[in-house]
């Protein structure tokens, strides 16, 4: 297929799909009338049902399942020049995973401290940032859900959402401007005489942690807000009336009730933080090495897609395992999170 | 221990809206006291002010003689039972009842003993491990009472806790509440819009309308000797006849109403020319014509047989509100037919003339 034909196909195919879908639904409506309380197949008719199943199925398979499986397969193969791929040297191997742990594809006498350190730092820092994020967002969500009136709630929502209209990378750079050695914060602090010498916020990773916390603030706020909002105000008052101090009410009445929301927010933020790329690249100090840039480098600096796949897969599996263990520990089922 | 509650010229405002105006009364130690009024009359606001969720804009709330200003709901010697009960759904019955004790740091063993005691008091022994969701409406009710009593309040506040129950259970719970109150001996303050509840349970009742306490007294005095047109029309069935006073002497007043001149007792001293309302309760009416200013004649719109009594509905001065007449079974007179005209009479000694004021809406 020549490149022009391919390009036309890419542009036209989605349009064609939409047109076909629209035509089919129009025809169905004319034939079957108003869709009532019927099963999926009866409701949509055989043709559209088949189309829906195929469309969603193919989309899931082609864009989600297969690439992931491909990556898994990739990670168990050695890096080879294109000519040798599929040849006799293209065997299943653990050398990419070995490299992650020992820093070599063959030796096992020395640990790959740089990558391992970055990996555990990433996991540890993500846990810390998730906790920090929760600490910041819980009061906000509680205020929005239980205290604020409708007018103030709208203003708050707007204030929370508007900054996120700005591109993530721009936001990260804005934080760099604020936290830089000659940045806004240092200049301001020195002007009012709190400090005499500028603080290296970026080198100390303060900028990175701030940026990462801020990047996923909304993702924490909304599940929390949703969960707390459905709590009957009278329960808070009942606890107070029975003599509970405010922290006791939050710990024993609000938080147990909001547990699914807390779990949803925390798992999302943890996953996204551990997998964040832009903020660590832009805000990371010279000392700090986040794991995702290493993965990125495996692909695009070392041109070792096999190793990159292995690294990405390690991060993904670790995150999933960690999240599942935490959910288990807090007795939250996956079903509850989606509530 | 129990305590009295005193409202001293309490006014509560929300912005420009005055929810409670100048409420002054004293609820005695160990009394079962009810606030009765239609929704929006300010009775819940008063309850929330006593419990500490609201502070009065003016005036003072005193419990056991102590001014409560600045003391939060968690520090007051009161416990509140919410309209929807507000039981904690994720806790067991025992955890719910023991919550207040846990907050106070009562150790596990003592807490368990106290919870068991309370479960016995509410006749639910052994139900401590159940979840709230497994309980019936009446049981939840009782758990809410036990939870409030666990902290040994001096005053128990109840915000229409029976309104969610069905009729039979409601009547049963009335007795039960009264029994529990007598057993624990503390002050109960009960909020309701249901006059039946207020009349059957309370030692005394405060009738409220539009933020104002209209009358305080025991059930009988409120029913027999209402002091305002609102109380007369809100508590029990009553037939109002609006008009202007044309004569007032010897403790009686005569009003000129659309159905003629009517006489009643003038306990509030209305004088000639004042707008006034004469109230005659359905059971005061008797069939047949009588004295000139103690009878009227009208068309029978409807006849409702209810066993021990028969209710007649006659065309009244207000087309939307027919005159209601109760005829007890065995009164000796034959019941007039629907559509016929009939005369009814009443003893002016049992009718009341009150100054004109807002009437309760149906």
Order of helices and strands of chain A: HHHHHHHHHHHHHHH
**How many individual domains of chain A?**
2
So, CATH architecture of the largest domain in chain B? 3-Layer(aba) Sandwich
Distance between the termini of chain A: 47 Å
Q: How is the largest sheet of chain B built, in terms of strand order?
A: 6-7-8-3-9-10
Can you write the helix and strand succession of chain B as a string?
EEEHEEEHHHEHEHEEHHEEEEEEEEEE
The oligomerization state is heterodimer
Topology, number of strands of chain A: 0
Strand content of chain B: 25-35%
Which structural class best describes the helix and strand composition of chain A?
mainly alpha
CATH class of the largest domain in chain A: Mainly Alpha
Q: How confident is the prediction overall: mean pLDDT of chain A?
A: 86
Q: What is the fold's blueprint, element by element?
A:
The complex is a heterodimer of chains A (339) and B (362).
Chain A: H1 3-32, H2 40-75, H3 95-102, H4 113-147, H5 150-161, H6 168-179, H7 184-191, H8 206-215, H9 217-229, H10 233-241, H11 246-274, H12 278-283, H13 291-300, H14 305-329, H15 334-337
Chain B: E1 5-14, E2 17-27, E3 32-36, H1 43-51, E4 58-63, E5 66-67, E6 78-81, H2 93-103, H3 108-121, H4 137-150, E7 155-159, H5 167-184, E8 187-192, H6 195-201, E9 204-209, E10 212-217, H7 219-224, H8 229-234, E11 239-249, E12 252-257, E13 260-265, E14 275-280, E15 286-287, E16 295-305, E17 309-314, E18 323-328, E19 341-345, E20 352-355
Parallel strand pairs in B: 3-8, 3-9, 6-7, 7-8
Antiparallel strand pairs in B: 1-2, 1-4, 4-5, 9-10, 11-12, 11-14, 12-13, 14-20, 15-19, 16-17, 16-19, 17-18
